[in-house]
Specification:
Elements (H helix, E strand, L loop, with lengths): L8 E9 L5 H8 L1 H9 L5 E4 L16 E4 L7 E5 L2 E7 L5 H19 L5 E14 L7 H8 L19 E8 L2 E11 L5 E10 L3 E3 L1 H23 L2 H6 L5
Antiparallel strand pairs: 1-5, 1-6, 2-3, 3-4, 4-5, 6-9, 6-10, 7-8, 8-9
């Protein structure tokens, strides 16, 4: 997704997951954050721990345990845990070219540190989280979706003058290179503004990938997410993203 002057983007998350099958895998993962930090500390010098030291490592499988940043509270950031590696960024820092370059550096570091450059069985994913502000908390969120997105929602089982106060809708598809999920939820952004949160996520098939194989997958996932976003918001809503905020 290219940078729009008033993009609704909240966060982009590129993630790798792999299975921790035994104590040996767990021990190997516990050294990963130190090995990665030694490679990436020039770009991400600020390091923080997210879990108390007394928590057993087995409880933290597929959860972030360490985080690397350029500086405190800044994005982009890297998260590492047993069986988990993510690269997160926000709208202000997101340009696809730069994000892809950061992903490439992270993957090269991971493959050098964890698998000595060999193939490793992982499941990659890419998620875009967007926020569409509604006019007020009383606005009918179903009407907002029907008017602005290429999705139509209708129900005839319940009659009520007031609009629904919450919405949670998920759509999932199997696609050629994994699975696609579209999730719509009512919620608030960091400014406590009410609106609709859209998550578009592609999860790749678990496979023995090389670093280049994952990067090829990432390009395909990005292109699909970009195309879906444009198709879903095409029309008046998408045009507002092209205008600078006053």
């Amino acid at each position: 997704m290219s940078r729009l002057p008033s993009a609704p983007l909240l966060e982009v998350i590129f993630e790798l997951r792999w299975k921790i099958l035994n104590q040996s895998d767990l021990a190997k993962s516990q050294y990963l954050h130190g090995d990665l930090y030694s490679i990436l500390k020039t770009d991400y010098p600020f390091r923080e721990s997210l879990a108390p030291p007394e928590v057993p490592a087995a409880v933290l499988v597929n959860k972030p345990v360490y985080r690397f940043r350029r500086a405190k509270d800044e994005y982009p950031l890297i998260q590492i845990g047993p069986g988990l590696l993510t690269l997160n960024t926000t709208d202000e820092e997101y340009f696809w070219g730069a994000y892809f370059e950061s992903s490439t550096k992270l993957l090269n570091a991971f493959y050098n540190a964890y698998s000595s450059g060999k193939e490793i069985k992982v499941a990659p994913s890419l998620a875009y989280v967007d926020f569409f502000q509604t006019k007020s908390q009383e606005e009918n969120i179903i009407q907002f979706i029907n008017d602005n997105l290429a999705i139509k929602i209708n129900q005839g089982f319940f009659k009520e003058n007031r609009p629904p106060n919450n919405l949670n809708l998920g759509i999932n598809y199997n696609i050629d290179f994994g699975s696609l999920s579209i999730n719509l939820n009512t919620g608030k952004n960091s400014k406590q503004q009410s609106g609709l949160i859209l998550q578009t996520k592609i999860i790749g098939k678990e496979n023995n990938y090389t670093s280049d194989g994952i990067l090829s997958w990432l390009k395909d996932a990005h292109e699909m997410c970009s195309r879906l976003f444009k198709n879903m918001t095409k029309g008046q809503l998408y045009e507002t993203f092209k205008m600078d905020q006053l």
